[in-house]
Write a structure and sequence with these properties.
Blueprint lengths: L1 H22 L1 H39 L3 E6 L2 H11 L3 H4 L8 H10 L3 E16 L2 E10 L1 H6 L4 E4 L4 H6 L3 E4 L1 H7 L9 E4 L2 E9 L6 H7 L7 E5 H8 L7 H4 L6 E5 L2 E5 L6 H4 L4 E6 L5 H15 L6 E4 L1 H44 L1 H9 L4 H38 L7 H27 L3 H6 L2
Parallel strand pairs: 3-8, 5-7
Antiparallel strand pairs: 1-11, 1-12, 2-3, 2-6, 2-11, 4-7, 5-8, 6-7, 9-10
């Protein structure tokens, strides 16, 4: 019975507090503004952070798992490296074969921590089929390429051993190329002309979306807008840049455009630009364990330096490490933004405390009447603390909806991915409730400490 009386008493006091809040709607709403904007800001900032984290995870999928990318270094970078090393012109005169299939084979056979090695040759070309043409890239790859980058086939078959070994005229189409050349038909078994060579289509890749900024920063190609042929097919039927030809020896001193096998490439002074010096354009190395990436990249660096006669004509990128560094930078940025947004909650709490203190002064006589009619100090504390908490919670609820709307607006206007998580809503709402209780206690205690006799005489 006593428990029921206690519960009924608290419920009655809570009703009085609720009536007091609604009796001063405008003032209560102004009091809650700090909480509203604080909660909204926290949710929006956490949504931006979650979106950035999701983008990093997507990028990780695009670059593959535990990959190291080896690419030729452009001439300007080689000259800068030579100057920094103090070797000057002498370093640039050393002969280096550039990136070759032999480099890829050595990495695969010598380094035990390597799981897969995917060499790649890329040319740009006009691609034609049945009178329809489009512009894209033709890449010479091995089946390991599709496993390293997790590129499954939508239909058809992968290259077989005979096609790889003998350089057969076969290919696999990216989703965009397929949509342009064969929008309403199955391309498997049909032919496309890439440059001057007809290739038989054996398969089509599933579509894979790639952000333009990601592809530029990490050297990732648009997988959809490419035709993939066996790497031996590219070297045998199109061009093997490691073979010295009469035309290369007779190359003039002025730059010229070279058309070879239907592909276009620019030959600079002396015919020794970066594209000619390297047999292949890229080597992607997949490491067995994540913790071996740094050590493996260092070993590859030393190995290739020896194979290239000490010439630093290649660069090694570790996308996973770059992405993790980017993630750390974004995390720090998000923490700073979250801390700034949290200041709004503190300011809102101070606003609640100030308004409640003013309310105590205004309602001094009311407090005296309540205490004279049997209300205890705990009842008064509970009443004013309930008012502060109700204002804070209502502000928190409004702030949640405002934060979700703000996150949506940010994504629509700026294109930044935002993800509102349940955790961010719970955290922000919990903080708003805590702020209401923490900053509402002092006014509530001041109200309870009033002398009933003095309060009754207060005008």
């Amino acid at each position: 019975m006593r428990k029921l009386f206690f519960t009924g008493r608290k419920l009655y006091i809570l009703t009085i507090a609720l009536e007091a809040v609604f009796a001063n709607r405008f003032r209560s709403m102004l009091t809650a503004l700090g909480i509203i904007f604080g909660v909204a800001a926290v949710i929006a900032m956490l949504a931006i952070g979650n979106g950035a984290r999701q983008e990093i995870l997507e990028q990780m999928k695009l670059v593959g798992v535990n990959n190291i990318i080896i690419m030729p270094k452009v001439e300007s970078k080689m000259e800068e490296a030579a100057k920094e090393s103090g070797q000057g012109k002498q370093a640039t005169e050393k002969f280096s074969p550039g990136l070759t299939l032999a480099d890829a084979a050595s990495i695969a056979t010598i380094i035990p921590s390597v799981a897969k090695v995917s060499p790649e040759v890329v040319y740009e070309s006009v691609i034609i089929s049945e009178g329809v043409s489009t512009y894209g890239k033709v890449s010479g790859v091995t089946p390991d390429f599709f496993e390293v980058f997790t590129l499954p086939l939508e239909r058809g078959e992968m290259f077989n051993e005979d096609q790889l070994r003998e350089g057969k005229a076969v290919c696999i189409l990216g989703a965009t190329i397929k949509a342009k050349l064969f929008p309403h038909s199955d391309p498997v078994g049909r032919y496309v002309k890439c440059g001057s060579v007809w290739l038989k289509v054996t398969g089509v890749l599933q579509s894979r979306a790639v952000n333009a900024d990601i592809s530029e920063n990490l050297g990732i190609s648009d997988y959809n807008n490419q035709v993939y042929a066996p790497i031996q097919t590219m070297l045998l039927r199109y061009r093997d840049r490691s073979v010295v030809t009469t035309a290369m020896i007779r190359g003039g001193s002025s730059g010229s455009v070279v058309i070879d096998g239907g592909f276009m490439s620019f030959s600079s002074s002396g015919g020794s630009d970066e594209s000619v010096a390297n047999q292949i354009d890229k080597i992607v190395v997949q490491v067995k364990e994540t913790n071996l990436i740094s050590q493996t990249s260092e070993i590859i660096q030393r190995m290739l330096k020896r194979r290239h006669a000490g010439v630093d004509d290649f660069e090694i990128k570790v996308p996973e490490l770059l992405l993790k560094q980017e993630q750390r930078t974004k995390d720090i940025f998000n923490i700073v933004l979250g801390a700034i947004a949290s200041i709004s909650l503190i300011v809102g709490g101070i606003g609640i405390m100030n308004i409640m203190l003013a309310s105590v002064m205004e309602r001094t006589k009311e407090i005296g009447i309540r205490m004279a009619t049997g209300a205890t100090r705990k009842d008064v504390i509970f009443q004013f603390l309930s008012e502060a908490t109700l204002i804070s919670l209502s502000g928190g609820i409004i702030g949640i909806f405002l934060g979700m709307a703000l996150a949506k607006i940010i994504m629509e206007v700026t294109g930044i991915l935002t993800i509102v998580s349940l955790a961010s809503i719970v955290i922000s709402f919990g903080v708003s409730a805590t702020v209401g209780i923490a900053f509402g206690y002092m006014p509530a205690r001041k109200a309870a400490m009033q002398d009933p006799v003095t309060s009754l005489r207060y005008e």
